[in-house]
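call fold(seq) -> tokens
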Amino acid sequence: MENDWDKVFLSLSKIKVFSNANNQPVTISGDLDDLKCIGVGTDAAVFQSLSAPDYAFKLYAEDKLNKVKVEANVYHILGDSHFFSTCFASYDEYLVLSYEEGKTLFDCILQGIHIPEQVVNDVENAREYVRNKGLNPRDNHLKNILLQNGRAKIIDVSEYVLPGNDYRWEHLKKGYEQYYHLIDGNSVPFWLVETIRKWYNQRAETSSSFEEFTKKILKLL
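ret:
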């Protein structure tokens, strides 16, 4: 029986995704045909097709294909939850997911779109839901969370099988509670957001605390 997304297979076969060193975003090669790239990560890129717009196709880099089945299994364990995208199928190179409307919190910061407190509460509840399923809610950051009708939708669960706490969400939540009012409703320049992101990623190497990091950021503001 043919699925609605089968018609996209030919288009997907015309492109390749390659990972890059130093945790940089993937590179895309080939003819996109009727596909539109709607997201880029360090392991995969996500596409929407004009011929099947209700779906998102997460295509992994050639050296990251072992993660396809892992992420598909995470979605299986999570089950039907309004906090997350729906995974309809997995293949050797990609996942077929529900296409989710909305802007990432990263884009909300850039465009000055208000992020309601309900979003923070939703992510907290989603993380508790993940723990209750025996998984570990890692890698919750601005580019992995959508603002959707005033609520949060988490669109990447690939690291939920990894151990340890990366503290990304805890720090974002603390930053929202203590400092978001300083920028709420104002567009923040891309260079500034990117600078903060890079400094945060370097923070572990310098062993600086969250408090020291935020003091450094406040000087920019």
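The first strand starts at residue 15 and ends at 18.
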